[in-house]
């Protein structure tokens, strides 16, 4: 076995014990609230980790794109929600093929998308499960309850190639909440909207089984989400500085780090590492704990000041100026899902030893 | 042949005629200044395009990472500068192997890096060409002229596994300049520093042949860069909104676009496309021409307002509210190099017809 500090850099390291603790902690939250957990696989993009989530009790996984769903199906996941409108003939063909081998559900927020899915399904002699995505106030996708929802629902009634079995929503504005009180309020509010939408759809005769919501920041408050039957957090599996800010995990619970090497010491107070935006991306805000665009594990006084594509510029306080070219540093990123999308493999460690290397099989699947 | 609007999305489209015009225009700038052009291949990451640059007269290519150099060598490029310090035994082994099959030069700014390269070269019975990277005031990597440079140079004298044949610098602060006057000043200043550093090294007996500088924003002013013998712009090959802001290209000269599909019309003034940060990244600033985080070709009144990983949210003026689910839009990104690193292939078009699909072979090569 290889010590993680002997790995060539930059690379992604996942602490297996911390990851498993995160998986089980969030599963317990769902279990205690009496609802199902359907983790968003965008965070890990790795079937091996999806299987660990299923083994812990998750009902299935969520993905954003059809290409991610195909990878998860290939990796043995049998229940998949594509939380994204499928548009275009090439994707519809793939959707129908995929629906023939897994239990598949797809979100949609318009008649155009639903009608095209229905038509493709009819042609293939099948029926596709569809969840209506409503907008709980985030302003991204999702039909507006109630008036526009009612109108959409009426238009879907004649479509016999789809079966509307759920309502889903994503309250991305939960990331802006500054206090747990505000997060609880958003959680309760998004749940109330989704539950009411589900009632509206049921009153029109749709067999709504699932009311799905939640993000990592609000999932802790699942018991306040009255009417929700399922949560879909993603980032909880690894954690990152954005989630630390949101109070969802502590720095110590973050399971994913980037290992980087100091490649230049051009000034006493400056070190440059071999990882920039091509690893960390420019996603998200600076760390709230004053460490800039990352947190150097074991060196909380170093600031990750700025990135170029291949350079990470660190600012060193006097106590850290012994850092030398060749030294390796482990850094918790601002947004772990984005980091996972940049590289091709994860190094899974236990007690600092590399136990497995998993390909990030769904990396870059934007179609 | 396929019309580009029939492509599945999101995908990257490169207009071959515009790209070739950019390649020849910048080659002409170098030719007129009587210096060589060594394009930075990080922008395209594609050997086919590097070969077009070489055919147009480029002396070789620049890359940031060893992995990119290996891809370029595999793609038939014979003269490669790795403008990055190589650190660690795994990379040193690869460096030595690569030097045996192409004309290779590597940048360094410290004794530690140079000594390790020298040792590896000696062990292999070879000599590696090294260029000293100096800092022209950007504050990233690079040794400070003159005092630290002199000290570094003295320390390198005994190293017989390396041959110091050049000086290089990168004035990234040229991107902050707001006027051509300011850009000319930075260009002249970085050149003067590099030329003086070259003289210093020559006076110590180093056979300095190349004085290499320049970025896309300053390369237009190559004739003002007295003492420089080579420029290394990268982004000029495609252009993007950052370069439009820097006055380096016009919107019409931008050769790279992202083709995306409208997947939701949740409100009259809002459309959502199937490309977010997993295609566009969060690099760079908003467009200076008031179009947000992108420029929708043919629809200058649409604002690319914000991205999530898989969603691009557009704000539509009344004149654009006829946009429908399924419509495709071509968008010029803020930072093209970053976009190229996100996907696996480029679609090369002429007169809107897809002529070739080139793998982005050096995508994600961070090691």
Characterise the protein shown here.
2 copies of one chain form a homodimer. By secondary structure, chain A is α/β, with parallel strands linked by helices. The first copy, chain A, has 2 domains: about 120 residues, Lyase, Ornithine Decarboxylase, Chain A, domain 1 (Beta Barrel), CATH 2.40.37.20; about 220 residues, Alanine racemase (TIM Barrel, Alpha-Beta Barrel), CATH 3.20.20.10. The first copy, chain A, contains 11 helices and 18 strands. In chain A, α6 links the parallel β7 and β8. The first copy, chain A, is elongated and about 70 Å long. Chains A and B meet through β11 and α10 of A and β11 and α10 of B.
Give the secondary structure arrangement, pairings included:
Two copies of one chain form a homodimer.
Chain A: E1 2-3, E2 11-15, H1 16-33, E3 36-37, H2 47-55, E4 61-63, H3 66-74, E5 79-82, H4 89-99, E6 103-108, H5 111-123, E7 128-133, H6 147-156, E8 162-168, H7 180-203, E9 210-213, H8 216-219, E10 230-231, H9 241-245, E11 256-267, E12 270-273, H10 277-280, E13 295-296, E14 303-307, E15 312-315, E16 328-332, H11 336-340, E17 345-350, E18 353-359
Parallel strand pairs in A: 2-17, 3-10, 4-5, 5-6, 6-7, 7-8, 8-9, 9-10
Antiparallel strand pairs in A: 1-18, 2-11, 11-12, 11-16, 12-15, 13-16, 14-15, 17-18
Helix pairs in contact in A: 3-4
| Individual helix count of chain A | 11
Shape, principal axes of CA atoms of chain A:
elongated
**CATH homologous superfamily identity of the largest domain in chain A:** Alanine racemase
Q: What structural class do the secondary elements of chain A suggest?
A: alpha/beta
Family (chains A, B): Belongs to the DSD1 family.
Protein name (chains A, B): Alanine racemase
GO molecular function (chains A, B): alanine racemase activity
EC number (chains A, B): 5.1.1.1
């Amino acid at each position: 076995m290889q010590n993680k500090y002997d790995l060539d850099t930059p690379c992604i390291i996942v602490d297996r014990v911390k990851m498993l603790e995160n998986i089980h902690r969030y599963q317990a939250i769902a279990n205690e609230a009496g609802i199902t957990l359907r983790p968003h696989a965008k965070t890990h993009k790795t079937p091996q980790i999806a299987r660990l989530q299923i083994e812990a009790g998750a009902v299935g996984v969520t993905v954003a794109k059809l290409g991610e769903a195909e990878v998860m199906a290939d990796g043995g996941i049998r229940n998949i929600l594509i939380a994204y409108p499928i548009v275009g003939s090439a994707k519809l063909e793939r959707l129908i093929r995929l629906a023939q081998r897994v239990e598949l559900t797809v979100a949609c927020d318009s008649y155009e998308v639903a009608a095209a899915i229905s038509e493709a399904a009819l042609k293939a002699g099948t029926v596709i499960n569809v969840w209506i995505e409503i907008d709980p106030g985030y302003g991204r996708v999702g039909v507006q309850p109630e008036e526009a929802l009612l109108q959409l629902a009426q238009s879907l009634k004649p479509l016999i190639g789809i079966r509307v079995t759920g309502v889903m929503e994503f309250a991305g504005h939960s990331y802006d909440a500054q206090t747990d009180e505000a997060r609880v309020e958003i959680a309760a509010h998004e749940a109330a909207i989704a539950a009411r939408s589900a009632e509206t759809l049921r009153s029109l005769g749709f067999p709504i089984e699932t009311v799905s919501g939640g993000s990592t920041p609000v999932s802790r408050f699942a018991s306040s989400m009255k009417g929700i039957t399922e949560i879909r957090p993603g980032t909880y599996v690894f954690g990152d500085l954005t989630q630390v800010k949101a109070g969802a995990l502590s720095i110590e619970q973050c399971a994913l780090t980037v290992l980087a090497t100091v490649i230049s010491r051009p000034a006493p107070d400056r070190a440059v590492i071999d990882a920039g935006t091509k690893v960390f991306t420019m996603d998200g805000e600076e760390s709230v704990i004053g460490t800039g665009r990352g947190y150097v594990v074991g060196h909380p006084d170093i600031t990750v000041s700025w990135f170029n594509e291949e350079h990470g510029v660190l600012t060193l306080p006097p106590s850290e100026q012994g850092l030398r070219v060749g030294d390796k540093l482990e850094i918790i990123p601002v947004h772990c899902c984005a980091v996972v999308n940049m590289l091709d493999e994860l190094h899974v460690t236990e007690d600092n030893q590399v136990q497995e290397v998993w390909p990030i099989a769904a990396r870059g699947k934007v179609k």
